Recover the amino acids of this structure.
């Protein structure tokens, strides 16, 4: 319903912009600008309507499955299902990539009568592919936990980053031959830290726009007024400066945000991290391990850090400075203490000193991680407006220069169209992610 309302609003806005194209006396730059915005609005309408009208419902409870996908409608009892499998499948796009998908494998003699695009084979057995887990409405790890409570032994998770979710810490240690270092901070506290990091990224983004993007656009327009080639040179050099400033400042907290969601495993003399479908291994006996105090690296707040020397693990919370659990720190120092390299043993002593230090910062606050994730999705949706200001500024600059230059104004407007299209796709993605987070909260509360 919400998606349909948004689509109707966007359709009305796009219709208004289209009507402006036929207004008598409109300037060429104005018509180009409204034409580009009409295209963006129509793209968003199509995306939101496709989301709103799609017939997609998959329900599962202790009685079985209720599947409503397009024209495929089927109710299945658990007795008719041999296995529920989550495994990677290859999809085509710009290159090949692997995504986790959910499959139902029926018992022998049970026919699922699935349409051709949903039929699949799992270990040589006929199956039906229900959906991919990359859908923004699905929080993968929570989905796997909920499904495991219903499917029991029928569930087979063949994606490493998701299969670990089902294991207790004892089983993880037995499987990997080491100790699990969970993502830190955990649960709702980790989501609060993500929100804290995102707020700082927003401030940096505002500074980047005010002190990099706007000056470059103004300089380009003024230089083009003197000579078009001078304006083109200012545009090219300014673009390089804007990209460099974004990479240096706006992304400052991105690595810390990634590490908040990353769990690790001590396996022998290595620390193993699974990020997406990639496994990273770091040698704890390589002589390169360092422990960095808070403030030693920009973008990590109050957190103590473990590096090689690039940062790979948060020893503390960037928001509060609160340290990891005592047992996690001692397990890490125990591996480093056996290294033949003095640098690693120094790092072990530094971690030991952290382990005996009294906790600083606020204690772990209880909270609902689902509601916290909804709030974080809402704040991320606010980036739509921020990027709209950037794209709109580029369009306005191109329109401003269109009548005073021969080629440059048109070139800037032409390049702003793909920028606006990318913004529309980003806006659609963030909107769907927000709707998905809201749906997760509603489903859990009811």
């Amino acid at each position: 319903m919400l998606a349909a309302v948004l689509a109707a609003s966007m359709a009305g806005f796009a219709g208004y912009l289209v009507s402006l194209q036929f207004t008598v006396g409109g300037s060429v730059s104005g018509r180009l600008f409204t034409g580009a915005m009409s295209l963006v609005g129509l793209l968003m309408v199509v995306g939101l309507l496709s989301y709103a009208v799609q017939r997609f419902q998959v329900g599962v409870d202790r009685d079985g499955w209720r599947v409503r996908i397009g024209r495929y409608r089927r109710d299945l009892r658990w007795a008719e299902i041999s296995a529920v499998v989550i495994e990677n499948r290859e999809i085509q796009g710009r290159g090949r990539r692997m995504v986790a998908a959910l499959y139902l494998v029926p018992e022998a003699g049970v026919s699922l009568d699935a349409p051709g695009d949903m039929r699949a084979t799992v270990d040589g057995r006929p199956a039906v592919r229900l959906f991919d887990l990359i859908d923004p409405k699905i929080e993968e790890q929570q989905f796997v936990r909920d499904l495991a409570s219903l499917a029991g032994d029928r569930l087979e998770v063949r994606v490493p980053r998701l299969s670990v979710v089902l294991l207790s810490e004892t089983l993880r240690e037995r499987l990997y031959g080491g100790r699990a270092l969970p993502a830190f901070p955990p649960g709702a506290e980790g989501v609060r830290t993500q929100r804290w990091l995102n707020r700082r990224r927003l401030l940096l983004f505002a500074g980047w726009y005010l002190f990099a993007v706007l000056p470059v656009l103004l300089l380009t327009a003024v230089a083009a007024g003197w000579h078009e080639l001078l304006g083109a040179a200012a545009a090219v050099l300014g673009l390089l400066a804007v990209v460099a400033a974004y990479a240096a400042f706006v992304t400052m907290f991105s690595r810390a945000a990634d590490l908040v969601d990353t769990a690790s495993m001590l396996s022998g003399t290595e620390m193993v991290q699974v990020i997406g479908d990639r496994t990273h291994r770091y040698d704890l006996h390589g002589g390169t391990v360092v422990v960095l105090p808070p403030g030693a690296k920009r973008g990590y707040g109050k957190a103590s850090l473990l590096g090689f020397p690039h940062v790979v693990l948060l020893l503390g919370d960037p928001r509060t400075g609160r340290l990891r659990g005592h047992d996690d720190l001692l397990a890490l120092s125990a591996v480093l203490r056996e290294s033949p390299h003095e640098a690693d043993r120094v790092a072990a002593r530094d971690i030991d000193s952290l382990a005996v230090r009294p906790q600083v910062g606020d204690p772990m606050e209880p909270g609902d991680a689902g509601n916290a994730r909804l709030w974080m999705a809402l704040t991320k949706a606010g980036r739509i407006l921020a990027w709209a200001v950037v794209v709109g500024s580029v369009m306005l600059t191109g329109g401003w220069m269109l009548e005073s230059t021969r080629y440059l104004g048109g070139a800037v407007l032409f390049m702003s169209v793909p920028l606006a299209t990318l913004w529309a796709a980003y806006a659609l993605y963030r909107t769907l992610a927000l709707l998905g987070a809201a749906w997760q909260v509603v489903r859990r509360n009811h």
Q: What stands out?
A: The two ends are 18 Å apart (CA to CA). The mean pLDDT is 80. The first strand starts at residue 56 and ends at 60.
